[in-house]
Amino acid sequence: MPATTRRNRRRDTPPPRTGSSETEVLRGFLDYLRASIAAKVDGAPEPHVRTAAVPSGTNLLGLLNHLTCVERSIFLGENVTDWQATFQAAPADSVADVVARYRETVERANDVLDGCTDLATPVPRPRPGRPAPSVRWALTHMIEETGRHAGHADILRELIDGATGR
């Protein structure tokens, strides 16, 4: 395991102080977690970023690829047929490609969320025949999903090169 040096320690950024509305709090925490995991993957070295460090096969790049798919499914209505496959990035994808795709997806998801003024309404989804969750549920789920995988990413990145912090 690499030794953590002063060079690869990042300042630990605390959670945001958001506005007082439920929407501002949920969106603020989700954006905070999104930025945290993207920063954790950004700049991670090849091939370690896609190498499994645990028996489950989980790898840092795959986590961000998976979160991209979850964001697209929940907020953009894209259909995912093989969730397990989302935990691996394509071999031709660089770290920069996966991070850029995630950030672009987050931007598109935020565009959708900007049009949702009532948390109780369903998330707009183009897929017919499937009930859409409420915006409140979708935001809460994405906070849980992103936070869970951001924790995994913290550990994986530290195992790769000792980088710590949010």
Can you give a write-up of this model?
This protein is mainly alpha-helical. Helices cover 51% and strands 0% of the residues. The protein is built from 4 helices and no strands. It is globular, with a radius of gyration of 16 Å. The model has no long low-confidence stretch (mean pLDDT 90).
**What's the main sheet like?**
none
Helix content: 40-55%
Low-pLDDT parts are none
Classification by helices and strands: mainly alpha
User: Could you give the order of the helices and strands?
Assistant: HHHH
What integer value in Å does the Rg equal?
16 Å
* Average predicted confidence as pLDDT: 90
Percent strand: under 5%
Structural shape: globular
Number of alpha- plus pi-helical segments: 4
Task: Name the features.
4 helices, single chain, 51% helix, mainly alpha
Task: Give a nutshell description of this structure.
Helices cover 51% and strands 0% of the residues.
Write the layout of secondary structure elements.
Layout: H1 22-41, H2 60-76, H3 95-114, H4 135-161
Helix pairs in contact: 1-4, 2-3, 2-4
